[in-house]
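Reply to dn_fold:

You asked what the input looked like. This is it:
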Amino acid sequence: MTPSTSTFNQLRPRLTGIAYRMLGSRADAEDVVQDAWLRWHESAPEDLRSAEAWLVTAVTRLSLDRLRARKADAARYIGPWLPEPLDAFDPVTPEARLELADNLSFAFITLLERLGPDERAAFLLREVFDYDYPEVAAALDRTEAACRQLVHRAKTRIGEDRPRFTVDRDAHLRVLRAFMAAAQSGRRTDIESLLADDAIAVSDGGGKTWATLKPLHGAARIAWLYHALARNPRVRMEWREGIVNGEPAILRFRDGVLHSTLSVVTDGERVIALYGVLNPDKLADFRID
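and this is what came back:
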């Protein structure tokens, strides 16, 4: 293994983490990192510090290009767009000791979709990956003042909806298991009792499978949906506990094949959000033990 390859492999997890948080897609993140590697291999800096700066800049700018190009595709996407879920074995997950779980949670990655490409890049580099403003400015080819403004706007746009509570794993599992049991039973009152009054449910089918075309708001509407699904003889699925983006989640199977992932956001007492990924294209690489 050449020194340049060794250096790149050392930095790959962080680079993939940046690209995934930028793009919400493992496949796109891997493409971006591979593209950065090919470009860097031709002009690799000798010392690790400059290598990291060069590669972070390359990955950030390549990700920005993809985000901007994705705007046209977004207009044609059927229904809500959600990130591609990461499985329990993905090296980008917190188990690899990269970043805190709340900065990789499905809810957080979804929240980042509210930001413009440059806001998203500046916010991630500064607030998640802890780069100094001179480094952020170099990566984005902007002034430090402009980057400070981008980060300020990003924090303002997502700050009100970013969870202000920390839920331990036991509490998360307790609520998830209670919701899973209630949803499978189809008892509407039981389901509704586990949902916050202002709960939201978002499903991403991408036009490839049945899914609600708009987010559902409110405990009553969400409870009716799961009540109807449980009563529908054509919708028979096996529900299992799993891990999505480093957090407990629900995996649903039909005829032994993964049908969807369901990320459950909770305050420790009730479910406040449900994010279901049903688009088979986004589940194709999801690994299951």
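Strands lie at 195-204, 216-217, 238-244, 247-254, 257-266, 271-277.
Hope that clears it up.
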